[in-house]
Write the C-alpha cells for this entry.
Amino acid sequence: SDPLQYALAYREHLLTQCHDSAGRIFVAALDHDVVGIVCVLVRADSGNPAEKSREHAFVTDLVVFPPYRGTGIGRELLRTAEEYAEKAVALAKQARVLKPVFVERRFLSV
C-alpha cells in the first residue's frame, strides 16, 4: 500500500481521537522542519473495566525522526504531553468529584 495514503489516514485517525478525548498533537520543529511529534489523549478509556472510575491520559504516539534522536527532542515532547495531560485532567476534576489520575506512556517506533 501507499505510505503517503497510510500516513494521511493515520493522521485523520489521530485528529479524530484528539477531538473525541480533548487530546492534542504537539510538534517539534527545527528551522521550520518537523522533526518529531507526540499525541496525548485525555479522558481516554483504558479498556480495563476495573478502571472505569478513573481518569486516564495516554501518550499514544511519540516519534522523533532518526537524525534528531538522542538530542532531547523526545524527552521535551514527552514532558510537554505529560504537562498538558495533567493540566487537562486537573481542569476536568474541578467540575467533578476527584478521581485518581493515571498517565500511561505508549511508544511507537519508526
Observations:
- Confidence is low (pLDDT under 50) at residues 95-104, 106-110.
- Residues 38 and 78 are 7 Å apart (CA to CA).
- Residues 73-93 form the longest helix (21 residues).
- The first strand starts at residue 24 and ends at 30.
